[in-house]
């Protein structure tokens, strides 16, 4: 599917409806008939605009990834140091989970439902996680961490673990706890 050209209003509506249904109910639980009906279009329109359900899933994930990246970046103000930006990722996560993202990570959820490595959504999922790891690694390097790769990996594990624990309600303060641990790791990694 060509994703560089703007979507028609009907296609945007389909994508919005599909995204909500996929996240709330699961990708496999939602059929194209339901998406088309909820979006007020025909199944033919859905297929004309997206080609396949797999391509629709991939675009849903791509759009969600774009929103997540912008959300994370928005928490790092221009006067924020790289070390502070590393910790701001946890503030972004807390805010993200407090809004419309109560079922945890859409990418982890989708990964569980898309076992085929050939599914176009799998590449989007991998790219999203690689982006966050790279973002953390770059910030860690800018903060003067002795081993930016190791620090970034540790912080990624904290982000992912906090997301799961918070979404399952097993640790109501999971993100705050992860941020405290992250601060210790950042302080240790950047100490002179």
Automatic annotation (TrEMBL):
DNA-binding region extent: 31-50
Highest taxon of the lineage: Bacteria
Family matches, as Gene3D superfamilies: Tetracycline Repressor, domain 2 (1.10.357.10)
Domain HTH tetR-type: 8-68
Keywords: DNA-binding, Transcription, Transcription regulation
SUPFAM superfamilies: Homeodomain-like, Tetracyclin repressor-like, C-terminal domain
Pfam families membership: TetR_C_13, TetR_N
One of the record's GO molecular function terms: DNA binding
InterPro entries cross-referenced by the UniProt entry: Homeodomain-like_sf (IPR009057), HTH_TetR (IPR001647), Tet_transcr_reg_TetR-rel_C_sf (IPR036271), TetR_C (IPR011075)
UniProt name for this protein: Regulatory protein TetR
Record organism: Amycolatopsis methanolica 239
Native organism taxonomy: Bacteria, Bacillati, Actinomycetota, Actinomycetes, Pseudonocardiales
